[in-house]
Design brief:
Order of helices and strands: EHEHEHEHEHEHHE
Shape: globular
Structural class: alpha/beta
CATH topology: Rossmann fold
CATH class: Alpha Beta
Radius of gyration: 17 Å
Number of domains: 1
CATH architecture: 3-Layer(aba) Sandwich
Number of strands: 7
Strand content: 5-15%
Length: about 250
């Protein structure tokens, strides 16, 4: 089991879904968790649930550069270091290409793509001073296997996949590892409220939908020293969904 004792971790979109379970799992492994959420009250609620001695609620809208700066400064003032960033915040839109507006696409770019970019820029200088850090980008299998009628969403996820690999090359010599997770269909509110048919688990070789804990466990591995020689890696966590078809 990965050891994250006393590691300081910032998780974006940590108030719900995959982010919430990642935060709780990391805390169970001994990490000090900075709970990032657009709504500070949501972050505070999870901080209480995790334990206020082991967590720090921070208001963080990943589309706002000033909030990134403030969040990281708050973490440094409290813990004096930042060991791990998990870029988890994201939004999903399923809409036909010809019905997708420029505004739809821009919103996806702001959250899914630029949010990750700003996160890299916000934490890397501190990690460089420490000569060590781990950045985990929670992306999607849509980066290479798009869901029908989700072109704009898939485009942002593909961009982050390449951003992750480029950052891994550039930041690796500074002691900073950058790796990515590609979740498949994970049973969260985001999936339930979309137009995806979550009842089609039979299409998945493991015959079940993914759970947030499946992502949390892989994130913990990539955050910890157990993955010390992983840099630029992409781990697919989809139960085998993208392996092919039996037709």
């Amino acid at each position: 089991m990965p050891n994250l004792k006393d590691q300081v971790v910032l998780i974006t979109g940590a108030n719900r879904g995959q982010g919430k379970d990642i935060a709780k799992h990391f805390a169970s492994l001994g990490a000090k968790v900075a709970v990032g959420a657009r709504n500070l009250e949501d972050a505070e609620a999870l901080s209480v649930e995790i334990g206020q001695h082991q967590s720090l609620p921070v208001q963080l809208d990943v589309t706002k550069e000033a909030e990134w700066t403030t969040a990281v400064q708050s973490i440094m003032q409290t813990y004096h270091k930042i060991d791990v960033l998990v870029n988890n915040a994201g939004i999903f839109t399923k809409k036909p290409l010809l019905d997708t507006t420029v505004e739809d696409f821009q919103q996806l770019i702001q959250v899914n793509q630029l949010g990750v970019f700003m996160g890299l820029q916000a934490v890397a200088p501190y990690m460089e001073k420490q000569q060590k850090g781990s950045i985990v980008n929670n992306i999607s299998i849509s980066a290479f296997a798009p869901i029908n009628e989700s072109a704009a969403y898939a485009a942002t996820k593909a961009a982050v996949s390449n951003l992750s690999k480029s950052a891994a090359m550039e930041l690796g010599p500074k002691g900073i590892r950058v790796n990515a997770i590609h979740p498949g269909v994970i049973e969260t509110n985001m999936v339930s409220s979309s137009n995806l048919n979550v009842n089609e688990a039979e299409a998945i070789p493991l015959k079940r939908l993914g759970q947030s804990k499946d992502i949390a466990q892989v994130a913990a591995f990539l955050a910890s020293d157990e993955s010390a020689y992983c840099n630029g890696a992409e781990i697919v966590v989809d139960g085998g969904l993208t392996l092919g078809t039996d037709v």
